[in-house]
Every structure is written in structure tokens, then in C-alpha cells.
Amino acid sequence: MKRILIIGATSAISAACARLWAEQGSEFFLVARNLEKLEQTAADLKGRGAKSVTLHCMDATDFVAHGAMLESCLATLQQIDIALIAHGTLPDQKVCEQEVSVALQEFANNGTSVIALLTLLANQFETQRCGTLAVISSVAGDRGRPSNYLYGTAKAAVSTFCEGLRARLFKVGVHVIDIKPGFVDTPMTQGLNLPAVLIVTPELVAMQVVDGINKKTDILYTPKRWRLIMQIIKSIPVFLFKRLNL
After folding, report:
1. What are the structural domains of the chain?
2. CA–CA distance from 10 to each of 36, 99, 142, 178, 221 (Å)?
């Protein structure tokens, strides 16, 4: 039985992960902004075998609320075996280019709020000297493409933060996994013009995430072909890359 904290628990990928853990009789502390969706997720998990499900409403960009959330989580679970940070938004790059306030808010949604939560959680895990911190980043963070560089910048910041945090916490027995999905069929990607051959289901990603956590994978590209895809994209020389419409 695992004791699991999920922040962004109503996202398609995190909910799919939770369904797999529920079948193992895990205990959950679920955090998201929308109480109605949280309640629907909780009912589904209980029906699948979850031992207990506790709900907590919080906007991840409300930094002041992070401490109280963690205190409530620890009062409920006593210890966290897995913390999955899965919240985020997919911004409109063109709007971000024109509106500074939107750009900064989107960076907070996808970058600084994640770093703030990781900072808080890392200290708890360091005290526990065990457990896994799992973070959903993105392949978008591997290179700044003109079509989504605000989003990519935030994800790159998260991945770099995770790299340093992994080295710090490894020494006390804590695992940090940076999860980099490619194109996933979720509400966040609906309406985007994406190559159908590269789109996968949240359920496939969830299976690879759960497996990666079990195997203590450091950086998980999911599906796995995205590691090769991004190696190719990163190898394109700058003089050519800036001429491409990616």
C-alpha cells in the first residue's frame, strides 16, 4: 500500500496514474482547483479499490497556501511515499508574446509554482529519507521552439531544478523523476494541429510513469520514442533551427 499525494489530481495523466495505484489499495491526498472534478475522481478511485481518498482544493499558484496543504496532507497520510506534481496549463504563445501579465502568469502556472512546491516537498522528503518526487515536465523544455517557447521555458526551468534536486536527495535515499511526455490526447491538447501518429492516450503514459517510478528512472520520456525525437531536434544547428517552423 502506497501513500500518495497528487497535485493537479484532475489532469488526465495524473488521474490515469491514480487509477493504477488505486487497484493496489493505495491511500490518496488529492489536490486541485475544481472540487466537483476532485469529487468525481475520488468516487472513481474508491470504486477501483483505493483505501482512502482525501480531497484538498488549492490553486497551485497560491504560494501562501502550499504550507497548509502539506500540513493537512501529512496529518492525513503521516508520510508521503509518492508525490506527483501534475498541474499546468498550455498557454497561447501569441498572447504571451503580446501580454506580459499573461506570460508571467503562465510561467507561474507551469514553472515557479512547481519549483515552490518541490522546494517545500523536498525538505519533507529529506526528513523522511525515503519516497519519490515525480514531476510532469514536457519534451517542450528540451529546446525553445517558436511555437511554444514560453511553455518550453517554464518546463526547462523545472527540469533543471529537478536535476539539481535529484543529486541532492539521492544522498538521503529519495528518488526524483522528471517525466517528459510528448503529445498526449488530453483536454489540454484538444483542437491543436498535432500529427496523429505521435498522439498517445493518458493510460499509456500512466503505465510508463508508474513503471518508471517503480524502477527509479531519473528522466522518463513517454512514449520512449520521444527521447530519440528530441535528440534529433536538439542536434539541429542553430543557423538551421532558427529558419524552421517548429
Report:
1. 3-241 (3.40.50.720)
2. 10, 28, 26, 20, 22
